[in-house]
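Q: For a teaching session next week I want to show students how multiple molecules come together into a single three-dimensional assembly. I've collected the sequence lines for a complex. Could you give me the predicted C-alpha cells for the whole thing so I can convert them for display?
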Amino acid sequence: MNVMDIFETMEYGPAPESATPALQWIKEHQPFGLFINNQWVAPTSGQYLESINPANGKPLAQVAAANSADVDAAVAAARAAFESWGKTPGHVRARYMYAIARHIQKHSRLLAVLESLDNGKTIRETRDLDIPLVARHFYYHAGWAQLMSSELPGYEPVGVVGQIIPWNFPLLMLAWKIAPAVAMGNTVVLKPARYTSLTALKFAEIVQEVGLPAGVVNILTGEASQVGEALVRHPDVNKIAFTGSTDVGRSIRRATAGSGKKLSLELGGKSPFVVFDDADLDSVVEGVVDAIWFNQGQVCCAGSRLLVQEDVADSLISKLRVRMEKLRLGDPLDKAVDMGAIVSPGQLKEIQRLVAQGVEEGADMWQPSWACPTEGYFFPPTLFTNVSPATTIAQVEIFGPVLVSMTFRTPAEAVALANNTRYGLAASVWSENINLALDVAPKIKAGSVWINCTNMFDASSGFGGYRESGFGREGGKEGLYEYVRPAWEAQERSKQASSTNGAATPGDKALHGTQPVLSGDDDEQANGHNVWRAGDESGFTAALPPIDRTPKMFIKGKQVRPDSGYSCDVVDPQQRVIGQVGEGNRKDVRNAVEAAHAASGWAAGTTHNRAQILYYIAENLEVRENEFARRIVQQTGRRLADAHEEVQAAISRLFSYAAWADKYEGAIHRPPLRGVVLAMNEAIGVIGMATPDEYPLLGFVSLVAPAIAMGNTVIVIPSQRSPLSATDCYQVFETSDLPDGVVNIVTGERDALCQVLADHEDVDAMWYFGSADGSKQVELASAGNMKRTWVNYGHARNWLDSEQGEGEEFLRESTQVKNIWVPYGE
Ligand code: NDP
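A: Of course. Below is the structure for the complete assembly, covering every listed component.
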C-alpha cells in the first residue's frame, strides 16, 4: 500500500496501547484485599471473586469478596475517623483533596488502561474523558472544602456515608461520590460494582500515598447481596448514595424508609435526542455517535430515543447509516477504536433479548455490514426505525448501543414525545434556532438538557434526575447539600432526647405550656391587640346560637363537600369539641391531585406575579389577624399573645417567600468549554404535604409558601389535631387572586390521606411533618414512582425560629435544578 492508496481508502492501522504496566500492577497486588482503615485486609469470608476482561472473556484479577462482618469493620473505621475528620478545618481537607487530584493525574495512564481492561470501554474514552473528569472532580471539590465554612455556614457533615456505584464509569462514579462527601467532612465506605473494582483499588492506593487519615475512605469489593445490602441496612450509616438501576434504587428507598438515613439516587434513563428540521444534520450525526455509541450505550443518560422532525427524518437516517458503517469496534486498548466491549455476558444477553423483542414488536432493525470480534462480549451499533412510542424498546432502558428513532411534526409534539417516559435524566435538543431550543429545553422533564451537544459533564454542573431517574444532584453547589445537614438539627434532636418527657417536643411545650389557657389583659395590652376572653362570642347574647361553620375541602379554588359525606370533630386541649372538618378520602385526594395538575400554568407564570400574590395573601391574613389568633388559642390552649406572635410570624414568612420568589433563580456555570451552563431552579411539580401539629398556622404557611413561591402546586393535609387554621385560610386565598388549584386542602385522617398521596403516581414529591411511623410510611410508599420525599421522622422543629422554619432548605426542597448546556461559537 502506498500513500495514495491510503488517501483513497483512509484505512486505519492498529494503534494499541500497551497493557503491560497495568497487568504488572495487577500481578503485584493479587489477590486484592479490602481497604479498611488505610490497611489492606483479607476478607473475613476468605473468598475471592474473579474479574474478567470483557474484551476477551479471560480472567484479569482476583478481588476480595467482603461480607457483613467486613462491612461492620469498615463502618466502625469510618465512624472513628469521622470524629476528627468532621472537625478538620476545610483548608486541611482541601489540601488532601488537591493531593488526590494531583496523584490521579500522575497515575492517569495506568488508571485509564486499568479501566479499559476491566470494563471494556475504549482507551480513547478512559484517557480523554473518564480520568480527566475524575481529577477535575477532586480539584473542584477541594475548592468547596476550602470554602465550606464561608459558603455553607450553619451546615455540618452528615457522618458516615455508604456509597454504591455501578460498572459503567467505575472511577468517575467513585469520584462523583467520594469527592463531595469527603470535602464536606464525611467519611465513606464505598462498594464498587462486582465487575469493575480495579480502579477503585488503585484509588485506595492513592489514598494511602497522599496520607489521607485512616478510615476516611474505605473500599469494600464484593457482591451486592453481601456488601451492598449490609451497607444499606447498617444502623451506623447516616447516608446512602447510590447510582445504578431504578429497580435497585427502589429497593434501597424501601430498605431505608423511616431510618432517617439521607438518600440520593441516580438511576436509569431513556433520554430523548430531539432534532428539529433546521438542525445542522452533520453535527447531529456526530452528536448521535456521542449520545448512544459512547461507552457502548452503557450510559444512564445515553440519548437512546432519537426524535426527528418528520421532514428531515429520511435524510438524517441515511446519513446515520453511512456513519455507522464507518464506526470501528474492537480491542478497547486500540486508540483508533470507537466502540469497545459490553461489560459482561449477562449484560450482553439482556441487550440481545431486548433487540429481539424490538424486532418481534414490528420495528425495523439496521446494523452495519461488518462483523463484531468473536472473542469477548461485543454488540454492534444498532438503529431501529418504524418504532411506535409504546413499544418495549421505546420505553425500557436497554443500556447498550441501541438507538430507537421516532418522528414528530411540531415542537409541542416533540415535547410530548420527549416526556413520554417514566424517566427524566437528560435530553439533547438540536436546532440552529436558539429561540426554539431555549423554549423547548425547560419543557422537557430532565435534569440536564444539552443544546446542540450531548453527554457533557463537569464537576461544576450538577447531574441528576427527575421522576424515576432518581433524586439528588451530583456536582455543583447543589450536590454538596446531599452531604451536609443543618447544624441546628443535631442540637435540637439531642435536646429533645434529653428532655425529661421523652414524648414532648419543643413544639408541644409551646403548645401546652404551663400558662393559663387564656391570658389576662396584661398580655393583650402589652401586644396592642384587641382584648378577647373565653366565652366572649356567646357572652354578648345568650339568645343567638353561634352560626355553624363546618369547613369543607378546598379543591380547585372551591370549597367542596367531602366525598364521604362524613365529618370529624376537632377538639381543644380539654377535649371539648370546637368544630368539625370534612373527612377526606381517596376520591377527594384524587380530585385534589387533578386540580393541582390543572394549575400547572402557575409555574409558567412570572416570578413577579407569584411574589405579588404571596404579598397579597400576607396582607389579607393581617386583616384577619385577630380571628386567626383566636383560632390558634381555641385549638391549642396557648396564650393569646403567643398566638398573635404566630400569626405575625406567618405574615413575615409570607413576605420572605414573596421576596424569594423572584430571587432564587439558579446560577450560570462556566465549565471548561466554549459556552455556558444555565442551572435553573425549576419547580418540582405537584407536592403533597402534611403540615405539622405544632404551630397550626405557622407550620402550614411555612411549608405552603415556599412551595408555591417556587411554582409548585400543592395538596395539603393540614394538622389533624388543629386543622382549623388551615381551613380558615380558604377565604384568605379566595381574596388574594391565588389561581384555582394552586393550593388544595383535604382534611381528615392525616396518615391515611398521606398514604394515598404518597401512592399516587401523579404526585411528584411528598413532604411529611408528623410522626416517625408516618414518615416511614411516606418514604416506603413514595418508592412507587420514586417521589422525592422530605420527612421529619417524628422530630419537631421550632417553626418560630427562622433558622429552623424558613430559608434555603425550604427553597431547595421546593425545586430541582435543571442544567441547560449552551455551547457557542461557530
Ligand atoms: P445494579 O443497579 O444492580 O447495580 C449497581 C450497583 O448496586 C452495583 O454496585 C451493585 O453491586 C449494587 N447493588 C445491586 N443490588 C443491590 C442491592 N440490593 N443493595 C445494594 N446494592 C446493590 O445494576 P446492574 O449492574 O445489575 O445493571 C442492571 C441495569 O441497571 C442495567 O442494564 C442498566 O439498565 C441499569 N444501570 C444503570 C446505571 C446508571 O448509571 N443509571 C448504571 C448501571 C446499570 P454488584 O455489582 O455487586 O451487583
